[in-house]
Design goal:
Layout lengths: L1 H11 L1 H14 L2 H11 L11 E2 L2 E2 L20 H46 L14 E4 L4 E4 L4
Antiparallel strand pairs: 1-2, 3-4
Helix pairs in contact: 1-4
């Protein structure tokens, strides 16, 4: 299900997604770009033609499958490889995210159960024996030194 959601998101929001990823790509330094290109087996953001400078190819060595020979060029751009990597790992990410949500729900339910148990324990404790005063009982009025009926107060 998450794969479908990610696919739909990328399909409908592809222009914005490309813009954001391309902006992030432009902020990377060359060492990081070389690392990404060698790990994802890609060249450039969209393809290797980004390395054309003054009609000459100035391709980074990380764009080749064998750096020492420099014969097999990765012709796929890193954006396509990045999207493929996201779609390949979307199931794993969804399982991890779902597990975290489930863990939080279990924590909330346990907290509610614990609160109810504490509340129940506090309500079942014996209360001190208090004799209720009836309306006909007399009480001492200390301010005047005389006894009055309870309803007169």
């Amino acid at each position: 299900m998450a794969e479908i959601g990610a696919g739909v998101f990328i399909y409908f929001m592809e222009e914005q997604f490309i813009t954001y990823v391309h902006m992030a790509w432009n902020f990377l330094d060359q060492i990081t770009i070389n690392l990404v290109q060698s790990q994802l087996h890609c060249c450039g953001f969209l393809n290797y033609t980004e390395y054309v400078v003054n009609e000459q190819l100035n391709i980074s060595l990380s764009c080749y499958s064998n750096v020492t020979v420099s014969t097999t060029l990765y012709d796929i751009g890193c954006y396509d490889k990045f999207v493929d990597m996201i779609l390949d790992n979307v199931t794993t990410s969804a399982i991890i995210g779902g597990s975290l949500v489930l863990f939080e729900i279990v924590g909330i339910l346990f907290t509610c159960y614990l609160m109810k148990a504490i509340e129940k324990e506090n309500n079942t404790e014996p209360k001190p024996n208090r004799r209720r005063r009836r309306s006909t009982d007399s009480i001492q009025d200390n301010s005047r030194g005389r006894r009055e009926k309870a309803w007169d107060i």
